[in-house]
Amino acid sequence: MEGYKKFRKDLESSSKIVLTCHVNPDGDAIGSELALYYALKKMKKNVQIINHSETPYTLAFLDEGKIIQKYNHKIHDEIISNSELMVFLDMNVLNRVVSMVNICKKFKGKTWVVDHHTDAENFAGDYILNTNACATGEIIYDFFKKEKFVELDSQIAIALYTAIMTDTGSFRFDRTTPRIHRIVADLMEFGIRPELIYEQIYDQGEIGRLKLLGYALETLSLNSTKEICHMTISLKALKETGTDEADIEGFVNYTTSVRGVKIGMLFYELPNGFKVSFRSKGNIPVNKLAAEFGGGGHLNASGARIPNGKIKEYLNIIVGAAEKYLTKGERK
Fold first, then answer.
1. Phi then psi for 253, rounded to 5 degrees?
2. Disulfide-capable partner of 167 in 123, 135, 160, 203 (CB 3.0 to 4.6 Å)?
3. What CATH number labels 4-201?
């Protein structure tokens, strides 16, 4: 992969390094950050992970040492400013760091983006982008191996396994190639127990999360052709169940589990606007659909945030926009 050698050189020549990722981090973001962190600590680097969001409780088992810090400008602006290198993982649009945008814009050191999403924004000095990768964790694994950057150990392997497992939908999405299984087999040589990792992430939810899912499922609705399914989560439902945005992870997949559905959507109310997550089957490009509303992502999994918008005002507009992607040419 082009850029690996320069990335290695910049990592090796920098003593103070900051790693960060997107708002509401998932398993790929947290796993990629921690894998690179552990590798850099082996090199005796002064490396810190600073994120806008708290780590979801479902992923807290990866960070038992409380390595990941939640951004506080009073504490972290000086740390970031005094660093020589900043690496943005599993994101390629600067506003995805939310509260950290201003300090990131002011940062004078070297900047790298390592990511697998499409439609990268030009805000960093250097990029490692592989939109064919199933996860950013796959890119980090390749970097370690091809550059002989670090010897894998159990900590790094668990972090990378989590990154790949979560972003492949537990190895059921279409980018789960034979090569991915070979990578996972290599990682499992370090004593990984897949059943325990899966349990931590997916089978240890708070009761409020299951109650929230009940609220969401009650809202399931189909368009006239029954090929688009959507659900809605309101702020009221979050309040009544004592949950937050992190608890919604994976809910959108229920929309595409309905027979005949080609496109699924989850509308999630925010204090100032709303977020919509898209999922699709086959070659239906919901990343293009998301782009129509200022978002982006992958062919079959994308999203967009609509600041100050109301779900009731946009729902039919977005469903209508999605219908044009259901033409015969898009189904292939």
1. -65, -20
2. 135
3. 3.90.1640.10
Vertex 14: Cα angle to 148 and 128 (nearest 5): 55
pLDDT confidence of residue 2: 67
Helices 27-42 & 136-146 angle (0-180, nearest 10): 20
Could you tell me if 73 and 99 are in contact, meaning their C-beta atoms sit under 8 angstroms apart?
yes
| pTM of the predicted model as reported, rounded to 2 decimal places | 0.90
162 burial level (CB within 10 Å; 0-12, 13-18, 19+):
buried
How many angstroms separate the CA atoms of 291 and 322, rounded? Answer: 12
Domain boundaries, the chain: 4-201, 207-331
Q: Which two tokens stand for residue 219?
A: 């809202």
DSSP of 209-234 = HHHHHHHHHHT-EE-TTS-EEEEEE-
- State what percent of residues in the chain have pLDDT above 70: 98
Q: Which of 325, 276, 323, 319 minimizes the C-alpha distance to 301? A: 276
**Cβ contact 258:275 at 8 Å:** no
Say whether 207-331 and 4-201 share the same fold.
Answer: no
Is the distance from CB of 56 to CB of 84 less than 8 angstroms?
no
Return the CATH architecture of domain 207-331: Roll (3.10)
257-312 pLDDT, tens digit per residue, is 999 999 999 999 999 999 999 999 999 999 999 999 998 888 899 999 999 999 99
Strand order in the sheet with 263-270: 221-222, 228-233, 263-270, 273-280, 301-307, 296-297
